[in-house]
Amino acid sequence: MASVARQLAPIRALVVDDEPLARRNLTVLLRRDPDIGSVAECGSGLAAIDAIRESKPDLVFLDVQMPECGGFDVLELLGGELPPAVIFVTAYDAYALRAFEAGALDYLLKPFVDSRFARALSRAKDKIAHYTPLQAQPARRLVVKGKGQVLFLNVADIDWVEAAGYYACLHVGADTHVMRRTLSELERDLGDEKFIRIHRSVIVNLDRIHGLELQDGGEYEVALRSGVRLQLSRRFRKRLQHRLGARSGA
């Protein structure tokens, strides 16, 4: 049975391009359409990731090539937080196949005529009207911004994560990286297949756990392969023991 389109609410659009003129051209075209409720702009891929997570736009026009973080990086780093409709915009046609494989709805080749833009926007409206959110997939990489540098951190390399107010400290071997994310946000991004919370302020990579050690006071510590010892809260003990037993075949 065919799905029924929902009532189309005003569409929230985001234009991402490092060239101001390119952003303005798209913004002007979008604002001519009565179905577009708002149009925001970002001049970099990193800013786009934050904007998409915070404002949850329905439609994103995304440039492929941008310094530090291009369009494909943006989609990968968003993981399961992809907008309903993403349209890639680029001056190069070599990326078309990869764009569709990455989940893009359409691919606008610069310079494009208004009629081509209108067709892409029409497709986006139809996609948004029939959109059903997919189950979020764990992120494979995280963006870590530091002084004068941007790192793309592989999630599998993280040993454990601890909360530090509105920040989170990611421990990777001997290195520690600080992100402006709450532990709950990171817990959602990391997923529960490989990571588990062992304390209200600590998440651990299951692959890094060496075992549990009973302390004199009757509490347990989680021993990591690196030698780090972390307090295990009673609230999370049963779930952790179950997960470790399942992984070992017990």
3D structure, described in words:
The chain has helices at 20-31, 45-55, 71-78, 96-101, 114-129, 183-190, 234-248; strands at residues 11-16, 36-42, 59-63, 85-90, 106-109, 141-146, 149-154, 160-164, 167-172, 175-179, 195-199, 202-205, 209-214, 220-224, 229-232. The chain is built from 7 helices and 15 strands. A hairpin with a 2-residue loop joins strand 8 (160-164) and strand 9. The protein has 250 residues and is of the alpha/beta class. The model is unreliable at 1-6 (pLDDT under 50).
Characteristic terms for this protein:
single chain; 250 residues; OB fold (Dihydrolipoamide Acetyltransferase, E2P); 2 domains; 5-stranded parallel sheet; 5-stranded antiparallel sheet; 30% helix
Layout of secondary structure:
Layout: E1 11-16, H1 20-31, E2 36-42, H2 45-55, E3 59-63, H3 71-78, E4 85-90, H4 96-101, E5 106-109, H5 114-129, E6 141-146, E7 149-154, E8 160-164, E9 167-172, E10 175-179, H6 183-190, E11 195-199, E12 202-205, E13 209-214, E14 220-224, E15 229-232, H7 234-248
Parallel strand pairs: 1-2, 1-3, 3-4, 4-5
Antiparallel strand pairs: 6-7, 8-9, 8-12, 9-10, 11-12, 13-14, 14-15
